[in-house]
Specification:
The protein is of the alpha/beta class. The protein contains 26 helices and 18 strands. Strands 3-2-4-5-1-6 form a six-stranded parallel sheet, sandwiched between helices. A six-stranded parallel sheet has the order 9-16-13-10-12-11. The structure holds adenosine-5'-triphosphate.
Length: 622
């Protein structure tokens, strides 16, 4: 089979080791540091496999940590000139297990696929867990504060791991919870994976069907996925014979609190049937940034910047007062960067956790009229129906922009557009209807036609149009309420009403619904965790103060000092934040901070920054 020119050019531009990973005829583990091109290699691998290794009737399954990452990878594969629509299934592990295993094969295993409202949402999950906590006699802590811990226990149970380190009452609550799910015929996120593993292990014909549909499986951010996913990958590899391509970085493992463990990546890499490759070049950051980040991590990985890359700037700003000073300096730095011509979306302000620091930075940005987007504000409802609406909004905005552009720009915009295609929206719509067990549409053309009417630029819904009117149009045009009422995912049941409520109360514009669109022209304000996998020209890290990072951990009852393991994980999140920067990273330290209750904590700069400085400048007094 022939390789397209775009893919050939991409293969040519890769480092020989990246290329080896793409072309290897077998399982691969690619372990590499930040900015080393893991995602780029993964995208090239998917494109290469689709184009040359498998027939047009088969596809590649790609598992990512977030929906946003899944969408980004899908887009990048489509841009590589590969005819992949319908052949690439990019989703989170939960969506993969639910849609591609449980829903797809439930009927072959004597079980029924989840019915209306049987896939629990967050609120229902917490309520059920609370009942199990009550039954297990845990009165001193609310279950909603122990969800990550319960997840860890459930994962350990599913993998038959040692449970001695857990509170036996919480283990009992987790067991009760599992029993309740089965009794009630319900399923939640965690159970999707364990049940999928069970089905794959127990049913040979399911394995055969999975292998013929997806002879290749690609997994991103392997270090952040827990033991159950690892079991699934091993079952797909060893029992179903699916070829696996996994990428990850043990130094960027930051979800240990939910049971993720980088040891699974190491284990996979140690297997004889996997080619274990490492990449050493960091294509993102200058050498000074790389060296500083490794000093912060406390591990000398010896990674190198690409040849000829400027060294980058690593700055330390010291303020005299509290968090208001951090906010002021942060905004000064944003203004200076913008004055140098750096576009707002290439600047990120990253913070360790919500609290007064975030409040102060937010108010100062607003006061100075600096346009920013805080990830976490105005959160749109979760769930596949809400996501579908957002993707339609993205298409509608893009349609309008293309429609109103001049002839020459139009061709360029069509080439560069990241909005989902009509075909992929039609497919997502059909999937939603099928999942809701609604009759198929009257004709093959009905869906694209109905969608086109809702997204038609002649309707003149520009990016700045009020989102509510557009949403009502879409709801009616595609009878979305019918889906909401019958869909198994509780997340979908009220999401249309919730979306409409948000549009009304916050006067949202169409561009606010269009995923990704709103990032343009705005500085990003996000947590270290949310910045994972992304890159910016300039990164500003305010609030590097002892007590904020590293910070105490809430154990459900009270605050306590982090354990060694938790401390190491917090250090890795700081490392992740530092390594997002291409040219400049500025750390802001000071004598202390005031809490939301008004107490002054004078604990000085973060120990992570002090340790980093000591490693970088061993002869100087810090
Ligand atoms: N061979 C290469 N030549 C030039 N640039 C490259 C190469 N490989 C990757 N890059 C660029 O380096 C940057 C980082 O790549 P990518 O996001 O794939 O890295 P990553 O390993 O996934 O990073 P992280 O783990 O930090 O998320 C991107 O801008 C990418 O285009």
């Amino acid at each position: 089979m022939q390789v397209s020119d775009t893919l050939l050019a991409e293969l040519d531009s890769l480092h020989p080791r990246q290329r080896t990973a793409v072309l290897h005829d077998g399982n691969v583990v690619l372990r590499a540091g930040p900015g080393s091109g893991k995602t780029r290699t993964l995208v090239a691998r998917i494109a290469y496999v689709l184009q040359t290794q498998i027939s047009a009737f088969r596809g590649v399954a790609c598992i990512t940590y977030t929906n946003a990452a899944a969408e980004e990878i899908r887009r990048r594969v489509l841009r590589s000139g590969v005819r992949a629509e319908g052949r690439i299934t990019c989703s989170t592990v939960h969506a993969f297990c639910l849609n591609e295993i449980l829903r797809a094969f439930a009927h072959l295993t004597g079980q029924s696929a989840p019915q209306a409202g049987q896939v629990l949402n967050k609120t229902a999950t917490e309520a059920l867990l609370q009942r199990c906590f009550d039954q297990a006699g845990i009165a001193e802590v609310l279950a909603q504060h122990r969800v990550p811990q319960s997840t860890r226990i459930r994962r350990a149970l599913a993998c038959n791991e040692n449970l001695d380190s857990f509170d036996p009452r919480e283990v009992q609550a987790a067991r009760l919870y599992e029993e309740q799910l089965i009794l009630r015929g319900e399923i939640d996120f965690e159970a999707m994976v364990t049940r999928a593993v069970h089905i794959v292990r127990e049913h040979a014909h399911v394995r055969d069907l999975l292998r013929s549909r997806f002879p290749h499986l690609v997994v991103d951010e392997y270090q952040d996925l827990g033991g159950v996913l690892h079991e699934l990958v091993l079952a797909l590899r060893d029992l179903a014979g699916i070829t696996v391509f996994a990428v990850g970085d043990t130094d960027q493992s930051v979800y240990g609190f939910t049971g993720a463990d980088a040891k699974y990546l190491t284990e996979l890499a140690g297997r004889a049937d996997f080619l274990d490759l490492e990449l050493e070049v960091n294509y993102r950051s200058g050498q000074d940034i790389i060296t500083a980040a490794e000093a912060a991590l406390g591990l000398s990985r010896g990674r190198l910047a690409r040849e000829g890359a400027p060294p980058g700037d690593v700055n330390l700003e010291q303020v005299e007062g509290g968090l208001a000073d951090h906010a002021r300096v942060t905004c000064d730095l944003v203004e200076q960067a913008q004055n140098k011509g750096i576009s707002p979306e290439r600047i990120a302000i990253l913070y360790p956790a919500r609290g007064r620091l975030l409040d102060d930075v937010r108010s100062e940005l607003t006061r100075r009229k600096l346009d920013f987007r805080h990830e976490g504000d105005d959160k749109l409802p979760t769930g596949s129906l809400s996501r579908f609406v957002q993707r339609c909004a993205s298409r509608a905005v893009t349609n309008y922009q293309i429609h109103t552009a001049s002839g020459a720009d139009r061709a360029d915009m069509l080439r560069r557009t990241q909005a989902p295609s009509l075909a992929s929206l039609a497919r997502a719509f059909t999937t939603l209807r099928t999942e809701a067990q609604l009759a198929p549409s009257p004709s093959r053309l009905f869906v694209p036609r109905a969608l086109q009417l809702c997204l038609d630029p002649e309707e003149l819904y520009p990016a700045e149009a009020p989102a509510l009117a557009w949403l009502e149009h879409l709801r009616a045009g595609l009878a979305l309420d019918e889906i909401a009422a019958r869909h198994p995912d509780q997340d979908n049941t009220s999401s249309l009403d919730d979306l409409a409520g948000l549009c009304r109360s916050k006067d949202l514009l169409l561009q606010d619904l269009a995923r990704g669109e709103e990032v343009i022209g705005k500085v990003l304000l996000a947590t270290y965790h949310a910045a994972k996998g992304r890159e910016f020209d300039t990164v500003i890290l305010p609030g590097l103060l002892q007590g904020l990072i590293p910070r105490d951990v809430h154990s459900g009852k009270q605050w306590r000092k982090p354990t060694e393991t938790e401390l190491a994980e917090q250090r890795r999140t700081f490392y992740v934040a530092l390594t997002r920067a291409e040219s400049t990273v500025t750390m802001i330290v000071g004598p202390g901070y005031e809490t939301r209750n008004g107490y002054w904590m004078s604990l000085g700069p973060s120990a992570f920054v002090i340790e980093m400085a000591r490693r970088l400048f061993p002869d100087e007094q810090t």
